[in-house]
């Protein structure tokens, strides 16, 4: 028996089945095409792999040295180089004296503050919170010196560090070169210039102990201990170093 269009029921069923099959195949092909760029091996989608891809720019392992014992060079090569190696995001390129000059002119304390707490596109500690403050300071000194500065890296612990710490003159020199130099090298804001006998003689009239006491509390433009965060004994060593070189 045929319908009005002359097709038998069997033919109608075949047509309908063909249409359904075509639609199923078409939908499958479209779905395959839409997801073809997202066929990712499960192994690369583990939590560890995803976490590695989401790390901040500078987050990496700064050598196998124990925490707190990494040198400025080690920290630079593991962390800072990601931006400072090529001068990305406005960062001063390693070894580029012209780029570093205006930054060095702002002083050690300013550079360290930016490195520790972040500045513009750079996150705090370059994105590596596991770094100690001294390790960050060593990296700043290492990069700054490559750009023309004469900073002194905070000493790494161990026999050499203990030996240096045992000599007040060495400690005083290091603190002066990393902190006090910002003002006393050029006599900024009324600070007695390093090596200026006349300027220091006036201040030493009350005695060295009184000078240390005043400097520890801060005076005029100078913050307490000149901004130095170490011990009082270390700060005194820095004053003695300046005094002894200004007699």
From TrEMBL:
It comes from the Bacteria. Residues 67-147, 167-246 form the Cytochrome c domain. GO terms for molecular function: electron transfer activity; heme binding; iron ion binding. Pfam families: Cytochrome_CBB3. Keywords: Electron transport, Heme, Iron, Membrane, Metal-binding, Transmembrane, Transmembrane helix, Transport. The chain crosses the membrane at residues 12-31. This is Cytochrome c5 family protein. It comes from Chromobacterium paludis.
């Amino acid at each position: 028996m045929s319908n009005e269009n002359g097709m038998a029921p069997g033919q109608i069923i075949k047509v309908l089945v063909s249409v359904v099959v075509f639609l199923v195949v078409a939908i499958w092909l479209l779905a395959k095409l839409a997801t073809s760029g997202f066929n990712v091996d499960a192994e690369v989608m583990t939590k560890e792999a995803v976490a590695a891809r989401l790390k901040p720019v500078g987050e990496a392992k700064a050598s196998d040295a124990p925490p707190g014992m990494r040198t400025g060079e080690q920290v630079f090569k593991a962390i800072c180089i990601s931006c400072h190696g090529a001068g990305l995001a406005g960062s001063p390129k390693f070894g580029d004296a012209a780029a570093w000059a205006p930054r060095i002119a702002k002083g050690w304390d300013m550079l360290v503050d930016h490195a520790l707490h972040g500045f513009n596109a750079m996150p705090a500690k370059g994105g590596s919170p596991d770094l100690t403050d001294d390790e960050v300071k060593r990296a700043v000194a290492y990069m700054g010196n490559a750009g023309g500065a004469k900073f002194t890296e905070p000493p790494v612990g161990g026999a050499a560090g203990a030996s240096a710490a045992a000599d007040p003159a060495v400690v005083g020199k290091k603190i002066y070169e990393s902190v006090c130099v910002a003002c006393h090298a050029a006599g900024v804001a009324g600070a007695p210039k390093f090596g200026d006998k006349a300027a220091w003689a006036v201040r030493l009239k009350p005695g060295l102990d009184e000078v240390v006491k005043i400097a520890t509390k801060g005076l005029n433009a100078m913050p307490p201990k000149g901004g130095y965060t170490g011990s009082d004994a270390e700060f005194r060593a820095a004053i003695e170093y300046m005094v002894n070189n200004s007699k």
